[in-house]
Amino acid sequence: MPRHEIRPGRAVAGLVMLTLAAGYAADAAGSWNASWTFFAPVFLGGLWLAATVTWTSYRLRRRRQARRTSAENETTPPGRSSGGPAGTP
Fold this sequence. Notes:
The chain is mostly helical. The protein has helices at residues 8-29, 36-75. Helix 1 (8-29) runs antiparallel to helix 2.
């Protein structure tokens, strides 16, 4: 069981930033000659992609959670809680 939720949007944003850093480093070292206008669309496109991935994972998590709670409500008899032994408040 993982200790925390997986955040794929943050992973995508991190990969985009690492790619931009590598591009700037290659440009500064002289091994690659790229203008600054190349980096701006990559940066904005990466942020857009990270936001899209975050939104998609959020929607999937909510759908999975709603399905799980509806399944719990169907299996527990009325008037009983779904956790703990009987007679426990």
